[in-house]
Amino acid sequence: MILIKNNQRTIPINTQEIKHAANILLDILEYSDFDLGIWFASDKTIRTYNKKYRNKDKATDILSFPYHTELVAGKRIKPACEEDKNLGDMIIAPQYVRTYLAKDNNIAVNKVTPEMLQDRMHVLLIHGLYHLLGYDHETDKEYAAMHRKEIALKKKLKATLSAR
């Protein structure tokens, strides 16, 4: 089950579309029977969590909190019980994402379109899911491996969404 919570009110979020995309991603990854939590929060909230869990006193776009903390990247989760069918949670800060998109595209914040935001949310869902599955990007080698997987998964998501 995918649980989505939206506590921020600055950026409109189509939670049904996010849930649909997350379901497709879980199907592709063959984890469709696992739970996933997605929380849309303010910059202030994500900054608090980033400081508490990563010792970084600043907002960020996404944080991931894996249920299986000892999972090795590329290894399949083998649940011992129903409770183990949990990937974990991610927190996404839409306001931070919108600001990032504006800077990255050299446009004013109010020129960030819903389509741009939705595309970036898909990228973040994919990124967060790979963190929940044990991938990281602390080294160049890890970054390259994770990035290749993210690109491939995004292509599959886009193809699936286009087919509907």
Architecture blueprint of SSEs:
Layout: E1 2-6, H1 15-29, E2 35-40, H2 43-54, E3 62-66, E4 86-92, H3 94-104, H4 114-132, H5 140-163
Parallel strand pairs: 1-2, 2-4
Antiparallel strand pairs: 3-4
- The count of DSSP E runs of length 2 or more, i.e. the number of strands, is 4
Which blocks of ≥5 consecutive residues have pLDDT under 50? none
Which H/E pattern describes the elements? EHEHEEHHH
Output the CATH class name. Alpha Beta
CATH superfamily: Metalloproteases ("zincins"), catalytic domain
Indicate the percent of residues in helices: 40-55%
Architecture per CATH nomenclature, i.e. the level-2 architecture: 3-Layer(aba) Sandwich
Question: Any idea what the shape is?
Answer: globular
Query: Strands of the biggest beta sheet: in what spatial order?
Result: 1-2-4-3
User: What about the largest sheet?
Assistant: 4 strands, mixed
Distance, first to last CA:
22 Å
> In DSSP terms, counting alpha (H) and pi (I) runs of 4 or more, how many helices?
5
